[in-house]
Amino acid sequence: MNATPASQGAAAAPRKRIALGPLWLAAPGALFLLAFLVFPSLKLLSLSVVQNGTDAFSMSAFARFFGPSVYQRVLLTTFSIALQTTAWCLALGYPLAYWLSGLSRRTQQGVSLLVLLAFWTSTLVKNFAWLVLLGRNGIVADALKMLGIAGGDQLLFNRPSVIFAMAHTLLPLAVVTMLPVMNQIDKRVSLAAATLSGDRAQVF
């Protein structure tokens, strides 16, 4: 029995494919993060609302944390060091990134490589180097003794040295983060400001 033209057209029509959007490409990464980051974090967080040795709900851990305990002092010290390190990285990294943005592309790439060398160096190597330099028998301590300045044997294991070491470690990261943003600023804006009799502060 011969098929009708309508049925032949329906049979010849290609099957409609399901279009997968670009978000489906992120599905494997999202599943990986859910399995190995979100779930363990929630599991760890659940321990804070469970009484020790039992499965009963308890807020005793939060009561110990917000009460007079060592946890608050540790947390305040951590945030204090983080804020001071951020301030030093901004104070030192912003002028450096601003200066680099004014260089030619070739010169900027060469100088940026020197900045990245400090970032690529192992943190363990940098910390060990500072231990040698700032130690009791280090170069800095000997120089301070020659100048008659006391305190050369107390340069390590205090808060200023920790902030100094962390700022030294994170400063290249601050520079490479701010530099691309500054490169996107139209250079003609500063030229126009200088042409309109603006001083260097106003141009900046």
From TrEMBL:
<protein>
    <submittedName>
        <fullName>Spermidine Putrescine ABC transporter permease component PotB</fullName>
    </submittedName>
</protein>
<keyword id="KW-1003">Cell membrane</keyword>
<dbReference type="GO" id="GO:0055085">
    <property type="term" value="P:transmembrane transport"/>
</dbReference>
<comment type="similarity">
    <text>Belongs to the binding-protein-dependent transport system permease family. CysTW subfamily.</text>
</comment>
<dbReference type="GO" id="GO:0005886">
    <property type="term" value="C:plasma membrane"/>
</dbReference>
<feature type="domain" description="ABC transmembrane type-1">
    <location>
        <begin position="75"/>
        <end position="204"/>
    </location>
</feature>
<dbReference type="InterPro" id="IPR035906">
    <property type="entry name" value="MetI-like_sf"/>
</dbReference>
<keyword id="KW-0813">Transport</keyword>
<keyword id="KW-0812">Transmembrane</keyword>
<feature type="transmembrane region" description="Helical">
    <location>
        <begin position="162"/>
        <end position="181"/>
    </location>
</feature>
<keyword id="KW-1133">Transmembrane helix</keyword>
<feature type="transmembrane region" description="Helical">
    <location>
        <begin position="23"/>
        <end position="42"/>
    </location>
</feature>
<keyword id="KW-0472">Membrane</keyword>
<feature type="transmembrane region" description="Helical">
    <location>
        <begin position="74"/>
        <end position="99"/>
    </location>
</feature>
<dbReference type="InterPro" id="IPR000515">
    <property type="entry name" value="MetI-like"/>
</dbReference>
<feature type="transmembrane region" description="Helical">
    <location>
        <begin position="111"/>
        <end position="133"/>
    </location>
</feature>
